[in-house]
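Here comes just one.
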Amino acid sequence: MSQEAYKYAGKPRFATAFVNLADGETIIVDLSKAQALAVSGAITKYEKKLDKLAFELSKEGTSTNTKVSLTPIIDMDEDLTDVERANFAKGPTMETFDHAIFNGIWFEQDETQMATLLRQAGFDVTQIGYSAVADAGETSHDIPNEDDGTEPLPF
């Protein structure tokens, strides 16, 4: 049953904003925990040069094997087009970045909505304390948020 429940368990996701140098637009990239750690490692490594270097975000693999990397573009004169260099120059800085773009990107469902969706997916919710019929938000027991014992993330 635990293997079945794992399919429905929440997984940490991380939203990271970047500027697409091709058009100057800010984009939000959804990353898994491992992907976010890889990206934040590169950002930390080059944090004193973030305003001087452009970066290339790339991915390799598929599904749960997808790896991402963030690598600096060392020779921006050679590797970027005129438009990309202009968009880099006018892009936001850490001080001018509008954090409001993250507002509303994720929706957190309440327990009743989650139980309903789990039932629709064919999961036996009685195994986790819900009745087989739609509850009015009540459970037979509280389901605690357990710490998985890992170290906190650096961001």
